[in-house]
Specification:
The protein has helices at about 5-10, 15-20, 25-80. With about 90 residues, it is mostly helical. The protein has one domain (about 5-85). Helix 1 packs across helix 2 and helix 2 (about 15-20) crosses helix 3. The protein is elongated. It has three helices and no strands.
Length: about 90
């Protein structure tokens, strides 16, 4: 098992300290808790993509539609066409 100083350097002292404190200052238990948390976060992250991608495309579509409308208005105003004439 690695020494706490090595783990602090590798993972960051502030991050590992939370696990170390919860594990009752037992390095081995803190590492087990850290690994468990990493697996849990990985499982959550893989499921998150099912919501992230459709949300991104929905927002991206709205942005593109808004940008297209703005560009159209600018182009028409440069040509002297009033918005009310549309």
């Amino acid at each position: 098992m690695r020494a706490k100083d090595e783990l602090d350097a590798m993972l960051g002292a502030a991050r590992f300290e939370k696990y170390f404190a919860v594990a009752g200052e037992d390095v081995e238990k803190a590492v087990q808790l850290y690994r468990w948390n990493t697996r849990l976060a990985g499982a959550f992250h893989s499921q998150l993509s099912y919501f992230e991608v459709p949300t991104f495309f929905t927002q991206d579509g709205r942005t593109r539609t808004d940008d297209h409308q703005r560009r159209r208005e600018v182009t028409l105003s440069c040509r002297g066409v009033r918005r009310s004439a549309l």
